[in-house]
Amino acid sequence: MDFFEVVHTQRSIRRFKPDPVPEEALWKMLDAAIRAPSGSNLQPWIWLVVRDRAKREVLAQAVRARFDSSGRLEQMRQRAQKMEDASQRRMLLRAADFFANVAQAPVLIIPCLVGVTSPTSDARSLLAGSSIYGAVQNLMLAARAQGLGTVLTTFQASIEDVLRKEFHLPEGAVPVCIVPVGYPDGQRFGPTTRKPPETVTHWDDWGVTRPQA
Questions:
Q1: What is the 3-state secondary structure (H, E, C) of 29-97?
Q2: Collapsed DSSP state (helix, strand, coil) of residue 141
Q3: CA-to-CA distance for 179 and 32, rounded, in angstroms?
Q4: pLDDT digits (tens, 9 = 90+) for 130-145
């Protein structure tokens, strides 16, 4: 696929077919991920690829437990029903359905920061994220180029205790997100709807929305 077609059609996929993801496709995604820049080129990342059904179920149960205890799933569904925008309503309902059954994704990839020291040694800071989130986006674009769907999720923050126990994460490894991977089921790729670049771009000074002649 053309690079710009990949960029313009990548979207969040939250419903997946049970079809297995070829290992070759996963290796291509991981190879694309590690091509990203990182602070001082330290490449402070480890990619935990979870295909085992039992382990995915452990994560799914933990997510359901957290969401059920807070009533968040039901709140999401109720909020969706009140939305006038059909696309926003569908997106929120799909998100609720996904969080109710995370294990439907045949693969879950958990990127972890390990030993980061540049531009900061605080692995939980926004600055540290600059050394891995670009790699995560590379991973997701490489998935789209192969017809695979992904979605960037951050529910790892609420189940980190489960992740550490289930996968024996060392103390210095910090999971930064969870990326489900699979073939889309009932969802199509883009084009995506975004604010036009001219509405979010300032030139040389804040508030100057057009380059000077």
A1: HHHHHCCCCCHHHCCCEEEEEECCHHHHHHHHHHHHHHHHHHCHHHHHHHHHHCCCCHHHHHHHHHHHH
A2: helix
A3: 15
A4: 999 999 999 999 999 9
Contact 203, 209 (CB under 8 A): yes
End-to-end CA, the chain:
36
Distance, in Å, from the CA atom of 46 to the CA atom of 135, rounded to the nearest integer, reads: 11
Structure tokens at 120: 């900061």
Rounded-to-integer distance, Cα 48 and Cα 109, Å: 6
In CATH, which superfamily holds the domain spanning 3-199? NADH Oxidase (3.40.109.10)
Question: Nearest CA to 49 among 93, 107, 94?
Answer: 107
| Short-list 120, 179, 133, 143, CA closest to 29 | 143
SS3 assignment, position 117: coil
pLDDT digits (tens, 9 = 90+) for 31-67: 999 999 999 999 999 999 999 999 999 999 999 998 8
Q: With contact defined as beta carbons under 8 Å apart, do 101 and 15 qualify?
A: no
Average pLDDT, the chain: 93
CB atoms closer than 10 angstroms to residue 184: 17
User: What's the CA gap between 111 and 66, in Å, rounded?
Assistant: 21
Q: Whole-model pTM?
A: 0.92
Q: Is the pLDDT of residue 98 over 90?
A: no
